[in-house]
Amino acid sequence: MSQPDTESRRADDLDSYHVIDCDCHYMESFTDVAEYMDEPWKTKFEGSNFDEKGAKQNLSSFFPFSTGDRQAHGKITREHSSYPDSPETPERIREGMSSIGVDETLLISHLILAGAGTTADDTRQSAFAKAYVEYMSEEVLDPDDGIYGLAPIPYADIDASLEILDRIEGSEAYAGACFVTAGATPPLGNRKYDPLYERCEDMGLPAVFHTGGAGLDEYVRGGYQEMLETHTLGFLESNMSQIVSLVVQGVPEKFPDLDVAFMESGVTYLPSLITRLDEEYLKRPEEAPLLEKEPGKYITDFYYGTQPLEVSADPEFLEKCVDMVGPEQLMYASDYPHWDYDRPTTVIDLPFLSEEEKRGILSENAAEVFGL
Amino acid sequence: MSDGLVEVKPDDAFENGDREFVRVDGTEVGVLQVEGEYYALQNYCLHDGGPVCEGKTHRKLLGEFTEPGKRVERTYTDEECVVSCPWHGWSYDIETGDHLGNGDLSLPTYEVVVEDGVVYVGDLKQP
């Protein structure tokens, strides 16, 4: 943080590390995905006048139903990505990875992050997720070149979710299953989702929980005015609610061999959540009868993507947070090309990490979790 | 007192659910008769010093995961084996003193002996 960075210093530093990015977003378009949709969704989409604008964010950047523009109204640009307003092409993935110093990447759908808020009609989500899995598999993912995918799980529709898990079984291209935490009602510890965790556990497939912007503007209550408010609070809340639900309902005890990872809420919220939940648990342990240890100890069994890492925090505080979660549980994540993405240098620059811990966070932990 | 024992009261004066309080080496100890058995625990909750031995004694709720997608089966133990502090609900195994949620937190427990029809608190049990 404190020393001036130059492009060359960053390049020199990055060259000595192998970097796996656990959370990168490919900017697929509805047009590309629709080619793989089942009917009636394919016909409905083609008649919807959506065209490629599904990838655009400008419609929601100004009017009152949105608290703001992801690019902060023109401040943020991406030289090596089409983000935000155009579909991406597979050829540019490597360019984006190289530009920030990533060697292998796990791609998560960009559009599904918003779709998770569509709880009124889960068929729409399932149709998109199935088509996305086919599209990415056919046209984008390239495991031989270190480009993997996380398959979106439309968890509101258990049968469709199981079909997707069947579809990707044995596929080298898909390294995990992705549950978008925003919009999950009931929360993801509910028994209705057990068959999905059971299947993931059987397949040795990590369950990756990714927070998201679906419903962000009114994530708990309406009336926020700035994205600074809703993004700070909503991204945390979406992950926190699912972490608490998973743990209290005993998912780690039901499926002890399931690897669980949470993405995109940084790390400093975790000590707060751990201590808060443990404090309440000591007063009401009978409400979590499956637990064999304090809930916080399950939380620190989960893995966490580092982004957006709170690098501006007091280093002593951040060190304590990393220590409480465990550096062996952390995996570098960029969230590239989104507005608040992190470069691997956010990890390399942390003054309190050992070289071994840096290598673990930058690639080795992820390689083990995802079997890369 | 005899042989390091602290007298509580006659056995036949105890009724189920009764609690008595004595001081053992400067520590207040609660003596409880629960379903015919005697228990003695430190009457000072590890959380914030509440009068834990004045609290509710009750059965322990157990959960069993039978199969994915099914509700966790919740059943109570047959015996009342828990005492909970009335201040905030910290709950301890009445025999071992172990907190139900974290066995590293253990409320000191004491031996209880009945001699010649009188109930006494004996030695501090070693964890």
UniProtKB/TrEMBL annotation, chain A:
The keyword Lyase applies. The keyword Lyase applies. Keywords: Lyase. It holds the Pfam family Amidohydro_2. It comes from the Archaea. InterPro entries: ACMSD, Amidohydro-rel, Metal_Hydrolase. Residues 20-372 form the Amidohydrolase-related domain. GO terms for molecular function: lyase activity. PANTHER family: 2-AMINO-3-CARBOXYLMUCONATE-6-SEMIALDEHYDE DECARBOXYLASE, ISO-OROTATE DECARBOXYLASE (EUROFUNG). This is Amidohydrolase family protein. It comes from Halobellus rarus.
TrEMBL record, chain B:
InterPro entries: Rieske_2Fe-2S (IPR017941), Rieske_2Fe-2S_sf (IPR036922). Keywords: 2Fe-2S, Iron, Iron-sulfur, Metal-binding. It comes from Halobellus rarus. GO terms for molecular function: 2 iron, 2 sulfur cluster binding; metal ion binding. Residues 5-121 form the Rieske domain. The keyword GTP-binding does not apply. SUPFAM superfamilies: ISP domain. This is Rieske (2Fe-2S) protein. The keyword Ubl conjugation does not apply.
